[in-house]
Amino acid sequence: MTAHTPVPSLPEAVFPALGTTAVLLVTDPDAVPDAEAVLRAELAAVDLACSRFRPDSELTRVNRNAGNPTTVGERFAEALQAALRAARLTDGAVDPTVGRTMTALGYDRTFAALRPEDTRPLPLALPAPGWRRIVFDPRSRRLRLPRHTHLDLGATAKALAADRAARRAAAVTGCGVLVGLGGDLSVAGPAPAGGWRIALADDHARPATDPGPAVAVTGGALATSGIRVRTWRRAGRTLHHIVDPATGEPATPVWRTVTVAAATCVDANTASTAAIVLGGRAVDWLLGAALPARLVDLDGRVVRLGGWPSDTAAVPGATDGGPR
Length: 324
Prior knowledge:
This protein has helices at 32-50, 58-64, 74-89, 99-105, 154-173, 265-278, 282-289, and strands at 3-6, 12-17, 20-26, 70-71, 117-118, 135-137, 142-144, 177-181, 184-188, 196-201, 214-217, 221-226, 231-234, 237-240, 243-244, 249-250, 255-262, 293-297, 302-305, 314-315. The chain is of the alpha+beta class. A hairpin with a 4-residue loop joins strand 15 (243-244) and strand 16 (249-250).
């Protein structure tokens, strides 16, 4: 993920979480403690349910039990359903069965712990088994993964956490709330005058004072996916973290970043990730999805789709149901 940086002009809390930076902005200064408590609780819950790097996470248990039926908890079931929906809407361009593929590429620990120069040889490409082979009953929450299949719910689970935290914090505090988790951003409640001003960047850690494009968000969510930040080298080759499930290789670089606006962060994240994977086919796919999008190619050329405004104008909250 690459990211947006909320331009700080409102009360905020900023702290590391889920391998990125959590940013919370509220329209009421007195609401920061309560909103932050909601956000931290949501992040702790999604980490315990969906982390690929915790030996005690539910995801780790599920992956170890691949081939056998198991019952999963409510939070995990919600995250799994979001991931399966993303796979269905993108025809598998975003697929949760890439867990073993990510491990084979060397992304087998938190990004901060990765060796930036891994000299081990690259294994043969390991295409994802495919989301359609997952058997899941949402009512009973009974799940069976195919043998030798590992899930990676990272992208959609983080976006879901942003959506949940923004909605819950707005409900608890009664004020406007923005939650940013790296490249995932969700807002709820009444927006400040002029909307939430968001700087677009390749890297969420870039200072907001740096010159660069910005938009104003009045509702819904934004997600930015890109190939420039989460990279590492293995066997002399530069790899990035967005994998094409069909090939088992990092997606062929066509777009440096893709930013999408949607009603929910899960939908925005689904579309932006799919666009990176689809590469040259992304423009037609995004036009079909009817979601506002801003794509930046490797040479810095900007393509705006679906009514995406100039970088200084507002992006209204999307009411579309998401990519389809």
